[in-house]
Amino acid sequence: MAETTHAHAEHDDHDHKPHGWRRWVFATNHKDIGTMYLVFSCIMFFTGGLFAMTIRAELFKPGLQIVDAGVFNSLTTMHGLVMIFGAIMPAWVGLANWMIPIQIGAPDMALPRLNNLSFWILPFAFVLLLSSWLVPGSAPAGGWTMYPPLTLQLGASFPMLIFAIHMMGISSILGAINVVVTIMNLRAPGMTLMRMPLFVWTWLITAFLLIAVMPVLAGAVTMMLTDHFFGTSFFNAAGGGDPVMFQHIFWFFGHPEVYIMILPGFGVISEIIPAFSRKPLFGYEAMVYATASIAFLSFIVWAHHMFTVGLPLSALLFFMFATMLIAVPTGVKVFNWTATMWRGSLSFEPPMLFSLAFLFLFTIGGFSGLMLALVPADFQYQDTYFVVAHFHYVLVSGSAFAIMAAVYYWLPKWVGRMYDMRLATWHFWLSAIFFNVLFFPQHFLGLAGMPRRIPDYAVQFADWNMVSSIGGFVFGLSQLLFPYIIWKCVRSGKRVEGTRAWEGARGLEWELPSPAPYHSWTTPPTEAMIARGAEH
Amino acid sequence: MASNAHAPDSQHYYVPHGSPWPIVAAIALFTLMWGAVAYLDNWGGAWVFLPGPLLLLFMFGGWFHTVIGENQLGIYNTQVDRSFRMGMLWFIFSEVMFFGAFFGALFYARVLAVPWLGGAGARGLTNLILWPKYEAAWPTNGPGHVGGDSFQAMSAYGIAAINTLILLTSGLTVTIAHHALRAGNRGRLKLFLALTFVLGFCFVALQGHEYYDAYTKLNLRLTTGIYGSTFFMLTGFHGLHVTIGAIMLLVVWLRVLRGHFTPRQHFAFEAVSWYWHFVDVVWLGLFVFVYWL
Amino acid sequence: MYRARLGIRPGIWLGIAALLAAAWTASPAMALDADNPGSSGWRLLNLPVGVTSISRDVYRIHMIGLWVCVAIGILVFGVMIWSIVFHRQSSGAVADVTLVHNTKVEIIWTTIPVLILIGMAIPAAHGLVLISDDSHSQLDIKVTGFQWGWHYEYVGTGVSLVSKLDAKSMAASELDSGISPYSVPHYLRNVDHPLVVPVGTKIRLLIGAVDVIHSWWVPDFGIKKDAIPGYINQSWFEVDADKPGVYRGQCAELCGRGHGYMPIVVDAVSKADFQAWLKREAAAEKAATARASSS
Ligand code: HEA
Ligand code: HEA
Ligand code: CUA
Ligand SMILES: [Cu+2]
């Protein structure tokens, strides 16, 4: 024991930050790593956004004007991959890194070096993926869902795609293990499970989903790799395999994946709405159980992406019912948020505005999801712009808006400065309105019969496509405000006084000074601090 | 559990200093992946694949060296130890899911795809229209006889049965070694740990022999339709895990020889033995569903 | 403590501006194309009702789903908007911090959605059973997708045809072709040889593919089924006897560069016309094979 204390003494007096590039490249501090994740995610959001802008420009009017049909498919594919694996997921991991140790009263993440590794794999993975634009045959063009046999037809980019996916998978698994272990092992005394903030709860469940399904994706793409290069027959009927088998394995990953992208968002919204309603969250326990139910159900609904592949009737019925059931726990969440606002004392700062937009628009996306779950109707919707509209409502106005809400909520805590709220409000309104101009007409396009993943379309689809593209351009340009506002805040924002940036904010993060000290809770928070945060 | 974890010493949860090893690991992985891409895309000879594994080995050596050093210094308290254990368990869970994907493929092929190709069930017309001469059976290399007209299935009663015995025994020996470690009986520990990894390497050698037979005598290859695909991918990934596990056991044994581990703190030993049991259980699944049934 | 100074004011202005802009762009187009349905898309907002019993069923299920969602939406959004309008700090609302839990309400808003869902699931399941019943077909057509077109074979008649994007669309669809898509009739939705089928006849499709996955979809028939290489999927439709006409669809599964250029055109004709067409085709095919073997 004597040597142990000695070692502690040695390490405790290193409270100063490491400087220069080492601070980032060798980082073990959860805040530094969180920051790197968030910056990376932002870069990827703009990269994926650039692809999306090119897509919208090409679809501005009928006829091919900008890119060749093959390049268009690459754009669609890369847009999906970059947004999902590069923008949304790393943003959540970044927020987890920043907030979870603070919110549970821990000194850092449980496995700091692993944490560094999880992050640094990512930029390399995306260098690998994005450099596929340069190889003969250009970037992957089989859709982000990578269905064989089409994806097996790729040229030199094929192994780049597979190995990039492997790297992202390793990164996610390691990151998720870290989150689970941190939450299970590093909670401050008195921070019981049922006192944890919902962001921590939702991330715990998300991390479990990640550990469960990322390896399955790795398995699926490995089979594809061996089918392509080593003559196996997993997805080849002549050898006794089945192309549809890939879809089953992929969606066993893919459906939980979409909840991986939204559950932490549910957590964020559950923090912000109470804060700006000045009222504790309604139905805390129900929220926890609802999240767990959603996660459980997410494992048994995967084939709702495959209603048209020729499943047996019994399977269609099962997957339809199971999918519809998810509306119940999700509804519980929506109702609880609504009840939290009910008879509150609301104010509309940017985090709240983004959360409210989430509430309305995610619910609309959920509704279209429910319609998609009705198998006979899905026969009409599947692979049309109706689906594209659905998932952008849940992903952009769901996940992405929740991330923006989170950043606007916690930024003052991170940097100890307040951002330009006026500009942020404009960012919000431009985003919220032009998001709808961008994606609402896509419902019409899909119902009218426009398939997704096409570079060109029949002229009757021209009008709504043009509206959608205009909405897209304005939405995209508005996003430039976001990094600008953050930059301005970091450089010259007004200093935040006290620990609490928002009057209604509760939780351990608001017990720490702003900016949060480099090492979070070197001594655990007091019982009183925890109790203040867990008033529910 | 969490609350009693926070005995006073846990105020000093060990947050390590910056370390170069993670970034080396990321670069090693990147090099490995690029090497594989370059090799598979024919951008160079086989040598392009080499730097990745070498870097990876270097990294593992360096990282483990650091961690073992820190451990020997006694920097890690029980709470850190628990983080490591939990991390290992969740890692093993992720490995289980990885194997789950391949077992899923096996079951899908056997229960759904092959019967459909043979004319049963919802997509039964497939047989009538596309593969009229094909009769569903397992093992099969599919209606197109991919990989050759005839092949023989791998028997469950030859090497596979012996290997089952070997792995089960090794599960036992590692447990005995663990008990010995906890009881402070170092001699017994050394002996049974050595037995364990020797058994592990025997398993790998026998499996190599089995593969050799498959290729030379049974005309059974990776390319032998869905049977060959599932057989070699499942047993191959398992064999890879056995190899890694046996190497880790060897490293732990070397550490035991150097006097590492105490009856109360021996995370590395436990982690490896969990891993070994996991490999064992996967094998049982393989034996039943790949070889036997 | 920080307060928002702008709050929801920009939203009102931007919202009004966006609506005006929408009205301004949409109105002339609406008026202009009132009697030329082919060229304007403003009024294409919903699923087609279609020309088969299945498509009408699907339409009904779709509308049930839509209206249920609209109704729940009005309710939920109504409550939210109520709070936003009447429970604002700026208008002096004081938060009722005791309102954190209410078992009765929570049970209600868990069970009622379940009941609603059951109500939606029943017609959906019923429709699905009808769609799945492809027995007693009167005509079998084997449909094979390829990169990029469709091969149709009238099973048992020896008649088959290959159907690809028509030449005019093809020329106009080139990158920077200089040809206006508006000048091409049924741009990208026209083929060289349409599939000809009789109305009032239950037709079973045996759907497969040779290279990658495609998907056969005609919205007016209410069916879509993937074409999987190495497997056969089944589907069926029966065009109303009084609705002969030309029905168009597109390949609905990403299948490579030509995915957007793989339309489906079905010419539904009277039974008599169909028989005549089939006879002509059979004769032509026979002549062609004879010519091929003699030369
Ligand atoms: C964040 C991501 C996210 C989320 C949360 C969801 C949520 C849901 N999704 Fe979505 N989905 C995607 C991302 C997501 N989806 C993506 C990316 C795709 C396309 C992938 C691809 O092909 O590329 C897709 C595709 C997709 C399909 C396949 C479409 C097709 O290709 O044919 C289906 C079909 O069932 C579906 C259903 C649902 C359902 C039922 C929900 C439910 O969870 C929604 C539940 C929510 C609500 C219902 C609203 C709130 C509830 C209430 C207010 C309660 C009362 C309501 C009722 C009783 C009606 N989704
Ligand atoms: C979380 C994920 C996410 C996010 C945030 C987005 C955001 C956007 N998506 Fe996304 N999208 C997907 C996930 C996502 N998408 C997925 C999974 C698919 C399916 C892929 C597949 O089929 O395989 C898809 C497919 C998809 C399609 C269908 C393509 C097709 O089927 O061919 C379209 C078309 O409009 C589209 C548009 C957009 C637009 C305009 C945005 C905008 O919200 C983007 C806004 C952001 C920016 C624009 C960046 C910021 C600004 C700049 C870079 C400055 C320059 C700006 C200008 C020049 C104006 N997406
Ligand atoms: Cu054929 Cu898309
Ligand atoms: Cu899904």
Describe the protein.
The complex is a heterotrimer of chains A (536), B (293) and C (295). By secondary structure, chain A is mainly alpha-helical. Chain A has helices at 2-12, 21-25, 30-58, 69-104, 112-130, 157-185, 198-229, 243-277, 284-298, 313-325, 327-341, 350-373, 375-381, 385-415, 421-448, 462-479, 481-492, 527-533, and strands at residues 417-418, 494-495. In chain A, strands 1-2 form a two-stranded antiparallel ribbon. The two termini of chain A are 41 Å apart. Chain B is an all-alpha fold and 293 residues long. Chain B has helices spanning 2-5, 21-40, 51-73, 78-117, 125-130, 159-183, 186-216, 225-257, 267-292. Chain B is globular. In chain C, β6 and β7 form a beta hairpin. Chain C has a 5-stranded mixed beta sheet with strand order 3-2-1-5-8. Chain C has a 3-stranded mixed beta sheet with strand order 4-10-9, with helices on one face. A two-stranded antiparallel sheet of chain C has the order 6-7. Chain C is 40% helix and 20% strand. Chain C contains 5 helices and 10 strands. Chain C is elongated, with a radius of gyration of 27 Å. Chain C folds into 2 domains: 2-132, no CATH class; 139-294, Sandwich (Immunoglobulin-like), CATH 2.60.40. Chain C has helices at residues 9-32, 53-86, 103-132, 167-172, 271-294, and strands at 139-146, 149-154, 159-163, 195-198, 203-209, 214-218, 223-227, 233-237, 245-250, 263-269. Classes of the chains: A mainly alpha (536), B mainly alpha (293), C alpha+beta (295). The interface between A and B is large, with 92 and 83 residues. Residues 46, 49-50, 52-53, 55-56, 76-77, 79-80, 83-84, 88, 143-145, 388, 392, 395-396, 399-400, 438, 452-453, 472-473, 475-477, 479-480 of chain A line the site of one heme-A.
Cα-based radius of gyration of chain B, to the nearest Å:
23 Å
N-to-C order of helices and strands of chain A: HHHHHHHHHHHHHHEHHHEH
Residue runs with pLDDT of under 50 for 5 or more positions of chain B: 1-10
Report the structural category of chain A.
Answer: mainly alpha
